């Protein structure tokens, strides 16, 4: 297997998403981590982005709401190497109309070797890692052979 590397810079581009039932928990977590979040570039889907911007008094690049394509926008940004990390407080107890989009987004995080936090504990572990405060070299599969194949 051929691999390649890319640098996740010290100033990370972080996409933040939360299902409705998880928004209060995400906002509480974001407030507790506001100083570190302020050192990074934030992207948020729909209402989550708006609420984060208001709560943190910090700019958040706002995308569409998840069900309207925001999850797919984040996925596209991951594939284009424009997102370095995903914080996604998703609700495992409620069916979502865009569940296939959510699954596709999480799949892209694995494909492109993007760190993902799906709840407060995993977000805390990511944010307390020494790697949050430095450049990080991520090693991932080199997909150029797959992309260059002839049909």
TrEMBL record:
GO terms for cellular component: cytosol. Its EC number is 4.2.3.3. SUPFAM superfamilies: Methylglyoxal synthase-like (SSF52335). Signal peptide: none annotated. One of its GO terms (biological process) is methylglyoxal biosynthetic process. The keyword Zinc does not apply. It catalyses: dihydroxyacetone phosphate = methylglyoxal + phosphate. SMART domains: MGS. Substrate binds at residues 19, 23, 45-48, 65-66, 98. Residues 6-151 form the MGS-like domain. GO terms for molecular function: methylglyoxal synthase activity. Pfam families: MGS. The keyword Manganese does not apply. The active site is at 71 (proton donor/acceptor). Keywords: Lyase. It is an enzyme of class 4 (lyase). Catalyzes the formation of methylglyoxal from dihydroxyacetone phosphate. Belongs to the methylglyoxal synthase family. HAMAP family: Methylglyoxal_synth (MF_00549). This is Methylglyoxal synthase. It comes from Dyadobacter jejuensis. The lineage of its organism: Bacteria, Pseudomonadati, Bacteroidota, Cytophagia, Cytophagales. The gene is mgsA.
């Amino acid at each position: 297997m051929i691999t390649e590397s890319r640098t996740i810079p010290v100033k990370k581009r972080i996409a933040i998403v939360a299902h409705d039932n998880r928004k209060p928990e995400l906002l509480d977590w974001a407030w507790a981590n506001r100083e570190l979040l302020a050192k990074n570039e934030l992207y948020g889907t729909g209402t989550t982005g708006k609420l984060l911007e208001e709560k943190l008094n910090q700019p958040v690049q706002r995308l569409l709401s998840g069900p309207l394509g925001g999850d797919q926008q984040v996925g596209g940004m991951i594939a284009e190497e424009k997102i370095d990390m995903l914080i996604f407080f998703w609700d495992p107890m409620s069916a979502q109309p865009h569940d296939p989009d959510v699954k596709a987004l999480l799949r892209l995080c694995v494909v492109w070797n993007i760190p993902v936090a799906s709840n407060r504990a995993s977000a805390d572990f990511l944010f307390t890692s020494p790697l949050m405060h430095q450049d990080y070299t991520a090693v991932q599969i080199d997909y150029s052979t797959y992309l260059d194949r002839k049909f």
